[in-house]
Write a structure and sequence with these properties.
By secondary structure, this protein is an all-alpha fold. Helices cover 68% and strands 0% of the residues. The chain has 27 helices and no strands.
């Protein structure tokens, strides 16, 4: 089977010679002067080179020749003692880009640092580096810090050294796919064959799918065990969670170092979904979470941060450590970690910073954050904007049921559909009642109280036995709710006494 080359001059996924030349050509004032061969000669300080050779290097079907790499190896050694070693090469490129013959005899580094085209080139290469799997995060962050500190020349030198001396080429599609899988499975006991078997079953899903998946799990397939364990955890199998059954499947996957299974086991121990949250069980949960985190699981990073934040055994309360782990998850756009960081800032009184974090999470579609942002816009905590409040409340409803914030239904019902608000939402009592009942049936205490007081209002208007019975029904539900307290008890009893005085009640 013929190997298929990954082209390295037509995308933003490889910090390669081809993409370097493409960016230079695209940003040049005179496109006809930015020839590949001319750029190559400028970069490697030679007089001429065959166009086909350069084209092969740029497309990526050939590795850059050893003699040219040697030029850069020699220059990189000189660079350690003479920081201007690459100045003429870079200024030569800038001459091509800007269409100006620069004659810089002194302060060359300063000239490059202050050249807009140089800065543009460094930023473009930095953005490509973020996408290149061969550029480690530390190196990528280093490029960013150099640009931030206006060390454009130094950044370009480091990028050129990577492109010429470190960037692997050619790269083939089949090898890249294999490498991606191997990197994912590197720290596990899972074979690439097990992943292939699992995906094969998922793609040809049929009437015997559940049976086949269970057989695959019992034969030791980590992915099948994780899927069944997850389904049991969320209650998809019997319409209610079976944590003991989930544990058995997830344990088999975790024994093969499946990061997701390790996280879920740790989560179940920490939350007390299995066991009794004894110190020993919490230690076991943390052990699972730490292994999951070490394998790159972002949810584990968030939960470890939460444990530090609240001092959950075996971790002592440590806000600094909590923030460290939460920020790791935040950097991967893990919304729950962003929410936790927002709460930290809110508790410190840093409302602007907290709102910025909540808004970031809301824009990722996280339901709780959407409702929170809606409330802050409605109440004017940072900025009052009822249209934005309405938007984010509605966006909160788009989440799946596992993460849905039902208070958004209450807020829409009470502040928009019951009262109406300008042109944002017309008054719609039927919709309001629908939302309140739905929120109430899903544990929203405020919605339950609102239904109680609306029933009182209806009774005072109509005085029917049905209305009164509805009031008493809501009263019983309120009394059974976990948020019920003496203050609410007093308010409810005073309300009942008031309607008894105002209306003749047949208590049945």
């Amino acid at each position: 089977m013929k190997k298929v080359f990954i082209k390295m001059n037509n995308n933003d996924e490889h910090l390669s010679l081809g993409n370097l030349f493409r960016i230079i050509k695209d940003s040049s004032k005179n496109k006809t002067s930015a020839l590949q061969s001319e750029l190559f000669c400028t970069l490697f300080e030679i007089d001429s080179i065959n166009d086909t050779t350069v084209s092969n290097y740029c497309v990526g079907c050939r590795g850059i020749g050893g003699e040219f790499k040697q030029v850069f190896l020699t220059k990189s050694k000189r660079y350690k003692t003479n920081k201007e070693e690459f100045c003429d090469n870079i200024i030569g490129i800038l001459c091509i880009v800007d269409g100006i013959l620069y004659n810089v005899s002194s302060n060359k580094i300063e000239f490059i640092n202050n050249n807009e085209s140089a800065l543009y080139l460094a930023k473009k290469l930095y953005n490509i580096a973020k996408n290149d799997k061969e550029v480690d995060k530390e190196t990528c962050n280093y490029y960013g810090s150099l640009i931030k500190n206006n060390k454009v020349y130094e950044c370009l030198v480091e990028q050129l050294l990577f492109i010429v001396l470190e960037k692997r080429q050619p790269i083939y599609e089949d090898e890249l796919k294999k490498e991606v899988f191997e990197n994912i499975l590197n720290d596990t006991s899972i074979s690439s064959l097990s992943l292939q078997e699992y995906l094969s079953l998922k793609l040809r899903e049929g009437i015997n799918f559940d049976y086949a998946m269970k057989e695959l799990a019992l034969n030791g397939n980590a992915y099948a065990n994780y899927e069944i364990g997850s389904n049991e955890y969320y209650g998809f199998v019997k319409n209610h969670p079976r944590y003991d059954v989930a544990y058995e499947y997830l344990k088999r996957a975790s024994d093969m170092h499946h990061a997701g299974a390790l996280y879920m086991l740790g989560n179940m121990f920490v939350r007390g979904l299995i066991g009794s949250r004894s110190d020993e069980e919490l230690e076991t949960g943390y052990k699972y979470l730490k292994e999951s985190f070490d394998l790159g699981n972002i949810a584990a990073s968030n939960l470890i941060g939460f444990m530090y934040l609240n001092g959950i055994h075996p971790l002592e309360k440590n806000e600094k450590e909590a923030i460290k782990y939460l920020k790791i998850a935040k950097d991967s756009n893990y919304a729950f970690a962003i929410n936790n960081l927002g709460r930290i800032e809110e508790n410190k009184g840093n409302k602007e910073k907290a709102f910025e974090l909540y808004l970031s999470s809301a824009n990722l579609g996280e339901s709780w954050a959407c409702n929170k942002v809606g409330e802050w816009y409605r109440e004017g905590i940072v900025e009052k904007d009822m249209e934005k409040a309405f938007y984010y409340y509605n966006r909160a409803l788009e989440s799946n049921y596992r993460t849905l914030c039902y208070y958004a239904y209450y807020n829409l019902a009470k502040y928009f559909y019951l009262e109406g608000y300008g042109n944002i939402a017309f008054k719609d009592v039927n919709k309001a009642m629908e939302y309140l009942r739905f929120a109430s049936s899903n544990g929203c205490f405020k919605a339950l109280l609102e239904l109680f007081y609306l029933s009182v209002k209806d009774y005072l208007n109509e005085s029917s036995d049905a209305n009164y019975n509805q009031i008493m029904s809501y009263k019983k539900k309120i009394e059974r709710h976990s948020n019920y307290n003496n203050m609410i008890k007093k308010e409810i009893e005073e309300t009942i006494d008031r309607i008894k005085k105002e209306k003749i009640v047949v208590d049945i």
